[in-house]
């Protein structure tokens, strides 16, 4: 966004002509479109094996969890306490290999308790889900399962329940209750391992699950009668020919799920190298074409979405890179390169528009918006020198080209 355009936004907001949210969205979008590897910010290297999962807490947006293939869990402080341009995000505490309660095998998912940083959860190939007290770094609760645990998720909004959805080698989705400390319910319908589970950020009882059986099911956990619906990539057209054929979301294993922040859409990834965007209320495939989205993951793929931008973006690990797409058009916006080996996960920081990624190279990298160009460079030929982004990138133009953008 040019300096003149920024001034225009500021003045329109000042005079009450524009919703303040419009300026914020435009600037957030500019920042995401200028993401680059931050050479001044390191994340302390603790893991001796690949980094599988990351989660940033939403209370302060300051602390980040990481879980590794070495079974280790680390809590990082993302704040620059040194106030120097070059700094390292230090680990605050670590559940290391010598810790009494460390996971025996690879940690696949970590998640902060959505309402309080005093608690976090982790699940592992050692067939356990652990609920940790952040202060003491000891498990307050341990849930044991018969098969490998691939994923778990707590609702970001729930007030009426404290359920953790868990996906394992068993096709049955397990629901664990934090209040009672027991497994209270199972959801039956899948015929393969459950690789990803996600609660809706809009309705606290709605859950989506993805499996190796090529299916994505959407459930209302208050109902015991089975899933609400199964996503169908053909929107009902192909299934008329063979009524017995089950609806499939992908032609391979479905290993990634992510709701948009408003909960109105659901994004899925599969080993058919496709990514699909669905209407989460009707289950309709919106038919957005992202092209080939390389996906060879044997387990859950940890991708993420932006928040507060217009348009929104999706960040997907793809080999040793992260590919960035415009969510609603499918346009490939950019490719982020920096890891030396496969990227396993990425996590977006909605307050700062930073992106963190973890990979098999044991590194966690920070991607941050490039600094705004000085105002003088935005004048006349200077704007060409600085690479006027709206002419270079159509997705950038979409953010504020129309004056009737929704608030």
Please provide a written account of the structure.
It is a single chain. This protein has helices at 3-14, 20-33, 382-385, 389-392, 394-398; strands at 35-37, 41-43, 51-56, 63-68, 73-77, 87-89, 91-95, 107-112, 119-124, 128-133, 138-144, 149-154, 163-168, 173-177, 182-187, 194-199, 206-211, 216-220, 229-230, 254-259, 265-270, 274-279, 304-305, 313-318, 321-326, 332-337, 343-349, 354-359, 364-369. The strands form eight sheets. Strands 1-29-28-27 form a four-stranded antiparallel beta sheet. It has a four-stranded antiparallel beta sheet with strand order 3-4-5-7, with no helix packed on it. A four-stranded antiparallel beta sheet has the order 8-9-10-11, with no helix packed on it. The chain has 407 residues and is mostly beta strands. The chain is 10% helix and 38% strand. The longest helix has 14 residues, at 20-33. It contains five helices and 29 strands. The two termini are 19 Å apart.
Helix residue percentage: under 10%
Beta-strand residue fraction? 35-45%
Q: Regions with pLDDT < 50 over 5+ consecutive residues?
A: 377-392, 398-407
User: What structural class do the secondary elements suggest?
Assistant: mainly beta
Summarize the main sheet: 4 strands, antiparallel
Strand order of the largest sheet: 1-29-28-27
Shape: globular
